[in-house]
Amino acid sequence: MFNFIDEKIINFFKRTWEPISRISLFIVFFYFGLLKVLNLSPATPLLEALASKTIAFLDFNFFIVFFGFFEMMIGLAFVIPKLERLAFFLLALHMITTFLPLIFLPKVTWISFFVPTLEGQYIIKNLVIISLAFAISAHLKK
Q1: FRET pair for 60, CA 20 to 30 Å: which of 2, 34, 71, 77?
Q2: Domain segments of the chain: what residues?
């Protein structure tokens, strides 16, 4: 009986993992990007501090809206057929910027050596997003 139920559950996951993964990435990126565009993101102070250390020559108000639309594009690209490769490329660029506070803003992202703040944990959890994008990309048709 257990094997029968186990097999049913595994088969359900095999059928649904990809659309659920794509929708999850869409929601996270589109939603968080929209919050930036609407100037409602709780990440704005962190981004502003990072921008002042890395791209101080850019107007931050322009950058935050641009970055928000960039995130929204990533989300859309994960759910629009044939744009997955673009989504993965954009995600790779995004993840580079996402991990920069761990280096450039250590007082904001680390309590002590290998003990992240809440912001640091939020950034490190992006490893899960990267893994999910890898899984989707690994199943793309040539």
Answers
A1: 77
A2: 2-137
